[in-house]
Amino acid sequence: QLLHLYELHGHGSTIFDRLRHRGPDWSGIHSFEDCYLAHQRLAIVDPTSGDQPLYNEDKTVVVTVNGEIYNHEELKAKLKHHKFQTGSDCEVIAHLYEEYGEEFVDMLDGMFSFVLLDTRDKSFIAARDAIGICPLYMGWGLDGSVWFSSEMKALSDDCERFISFPPGHLYSSKTGGLRRWYNPPWFSESIPSAPYDPLLIRESFEKAVIKRLMTDVPFGVLLSGGLDSSLVASVVSRHLAETKVARQWGNKLHTFCIGLKGSPDLKAAKEVADYLGTVHHELHFTVQEGIDALEEVIYHIETYDVTTIRASTPMFLMSRKIKSLGVKMVLSGEGSDEIFGGYLYFHKAPNKKELHEETCRKIKALHLYDCLRANKATSAWGLEARVPFLDKNFINVAMDLDPECKMIRRDLGRMEKWVLRNAFDDEKKPYLPKHILYRQKEQFSDGVGYSWIDGLKDHANAHVSDSMMTNASFVYPENTPTTKEAYYYRTVFEKFYPKNAARLTVPGGPSVACSTAKAVEWDAAWSKLLDPSGRAALGVHDAAYEEEKAPASVDPVLENAFHPPAHGES
Fold this sequence. Notes:
Layout lengths: L3 E3 L5 H8 L6 E7 L2 E7 L12 E2 L5 E9 L2 H6 L14 H9 L9 E9 L4 E6 L8 E4 L5 E4 L11 E4 L4 E4 L4 E4 L17 H14 L7 E4 L4 H13 L4 H6 L4 E6 L4 H13 L2 E6 L2 H15 L4 H19 L4 E3 L4 H5 L11 H13 L5 H10 L4 E3 L5 H8 L18 H6 L10 H4 L6 H4 L2 H14 L2 H5 L1 H4 L8 H13 L3 H4 L67
Parallel strand pairs: 13-14, 13-16, 14-15, 16-17
Antiparallel strand pairs: 1-3, 2-3, 4-5, 5-6, 6-7, 7-11, 8-9, 8-10, 11-12
Helix pairs in contact: 4-13, 5-7, 8-9, 8-17, 8-20, 9-12, 17-20
């Protein structure tokens, strides 16, 4: 799903080739004087008539869109005097612009990035969804051209500078600048005070899942067996029969999981699938298969961030197999840990203010990490990932809660994400088995099998020498790699994306168990073990790194304190 508007002739075939993987179903292009919009389509809603670019009635407004607009029917009802040419959910953007001008973006409920050209005055706008679920890059050529693309690889040759387009922002050629259109209450990071309402949490999430079942093609759910993906699968299972897609493709849900043989995720996912009665597809990979795919993975996901690459590789391998089964869309559980403080390092949050500010920082950075992974690892094979936890309304509900209820309190029996677990703890009509509902957080790169990360480190150690690490700060002065694994990924990334602008699109800074740099300050011991694996959360993860690999100063209060309750316990 290529988004491209540029004021430069030529390059069309190269651009199409570079992003054809994102949309193998159709290629479309529109030119007006020296402006061009091109699109590679992955057809999910209205496959027969929704080819892009899309237009208003007289074709003076042209738009290319990557994403899904879940409230398009509601928006069409406000545009009754407009004539729609297709059944595409994205066509509504052209008509909304015609009706409301540039201020319509906040009306959209969905995931999207788009470029719109108004041929009447040769102006254009570009916008990205609130959280940055859909990728978008912006670039500038030496000749004064302006470029937009879903992936960096389409800009890296022709643009002198390019950036990751910020989420929740709009660019207008009329003003020549970016402005933020997404301004929710939580963005200021002030401490909210709404009381905990488990039914509101449950109902808001169920609505978020149901609206994402808008599809005219076969779909499934990525099921790791952890809390988040299991809740997505459970809610889909409950409501699938009443949807349009069930009438088209049947009401049996397909679920997918990948891991090394014997991994924690495979076992847990099978148990959840059996409980929900899904058609479950258990996929395996070996450490060597993952290592062999690393270069291709880094090319597609366009980052050298260690955590992202660790988790993207199994997701990339799984997506290829899913697409081969004829599935074109999947629902996934990204975003929950950021919203509810689910990562294991949140056990050390000193107070509710620090916890809330960290969740805000994590959500604001999602487009650089989990959203990037979920979109690009799947889009590499023409598969679309939808993420109900990142629904705009659900985020507002969850982030409006008094953060005291998100604090991990052993004395009150509250583990990480207790707020969410408790909301779906229904004794009369259980969503999940109790021990799954209260399973400890397992990061995807850990859950596929602990030997996966150990294998990556061994591979990097064999390719990166001690002298290379000694000189790392001279070779890579920006975001200097601090481990051999990080150094190895950086060399691969620089091979594909050698420009300074490319390396600046990747965030840096210390992290433990996926924390921000600020949260590393919560525990002095963490500064000695800066590893993004959940096992680096010493004294918290049940399979934490052994003492000889880690600092000895472990908080005795937290040591093995947080185990999931046994079956039948609340």
